[in-house]
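Model it.
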Amino acid sequence: MDRLTSLTAFVRVVDSGGFSAAARRLNMSTTMVSNHIQSLEDRLGARLLQRTTRKVSVTEVGKAYYDRCVQILADIEQADEIAGAQQSTPRGTLRIYTATHIVQFVSPVVAEFLAAYPEVKVDLQMGERNIDMIDEGFDIAVRLTPPPDSSLIVRSLATWRHVLCCSHDYLEKHGRPQALSELANHNCVRHVNYPYDEWRFVDRKGAPASVRVSGNLMTNSGETLRKVALEGGGISLAAGFLVHDDLEAGHLVRLLPEYRPLEFAVNAVYPHRHHLSAKVRTFIDMLADHSAEQQKLINPYS
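Modeled.
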């Protein structure tokens, strides 16, 4: 028989002073209550209750056992209350991993989240590596490309595009590419997390186009790619939000605008869809709302 139910039945019999009263409180038959007590006594090899036709009394062993059972049931009830509170009100520590150059959009949400929910703490880490969310204990990852683990839950927050660009100095030294295929003959600096072997685009007719490129720099740092491009070190397929100001100021030049780089999504990634804790569910909702408001900044070249 279920041991927890048996413990509950035993405590109710002692509290109520009889099997019938306990049965009414537990909404079960008197026989079932008796069976639970018998199961406990058989398991323990000791008599917990003295039964007569007129009353039920607790044995010495039963009294000691009763005291512990009351504490155990109280602890379980408290644990249930804590778990329920965790599901309804954000509290505890929220561990987040975010791509480095999207942190500018995540940070305001963290600040708002902390201000709104004083019982939460946030552990925010950033980088460009592919993390193992389960092994490393992260609740949420904010990524610019789809996760390699297909078992994770992905919620799209906003869309974004790369921009093909370089500096004026690079063009003066190497000339401006006039066709997509010419990129194969240029020094193209690349991000290791770009999900394809070749750079992919869509032409003005909506047809797919691609070119296999090479260069002297491969890195997981978007900021390094930006700096190298600004210094005339190569052509970059850079995140639009990262180089928008440089393009507007004329420090970088947009190349082959007739070819649009593929559209990607900023994603919130988390391990489980069901029974999300309040801290995870609330933060993701706030992140989605903020991303919708910032969509134009995230994707200035939509």
